[in-house]
Structures are given as C-alpha cells and as structure tokens.
Amino acid sequence: MRLVEQARSIFAELGYTVEGNGPTFRAEREWKVVHVNTVLETGELPSESGQFHCFVAEPDDADDLEARLRSRNPEYEWAIIVVDGDDYQVERAPPGPRVSA
Fold this sequence. Notes:
The protein has helices at residues 3-13, 39-42, 59-72; strands at 17-19, 24-29, 32-38, 52-57, 77-84, 87-92.
C-alpha cells in the first residue's frame, strides 16, 4: 500500500473526514482541520499556512524530517506519524496548550 493510502486510512480510522486527492490532503473532524502531507511522495515541506499539519513518513525518513522541520521552525503546529507496514506510531505530536501559573 502506498504511503498516501495508508495516511488516508489512518485518519479515516481516527474519525476524520478526508478531502482531496494526491500526496497532500485535508483531514477534518469537528473543529479541527489537519493538513496532511506524505513527505516521501512530495519530497518537500509545505509553505502554506494552516494551524495544524501532520507529516506521514516511513521509519528511515522520520529523523531527517523532524530535523528539517525544527530548523525551519514553521508558523504552524506539526506532528509526525511514522508508518511501518500496517503499523503506525505518532513520533512527534504538537505540544499541548501552554499553561501559566
């Protein structure tokens, strides 16, 4: 199964409505819209805005992807899901809300 198909399946299983074709798509659930990018199939990071972005990668690409995102420091919250066969794992999730005392 191609990475983009696995990404769509993951978000559908999580209860998101998946919109769009190709290696980038939108996943929407209630108030949250996530811009999903299957990095292996696009080869580049998105420059568009949006509050939440999720990058789906294979295990060998995850560390490099995280380093690229950290060095670029985009304006959006981002997460990385690593897909390995039929399994997946959230490698990096956006930080929770900031709380001040």
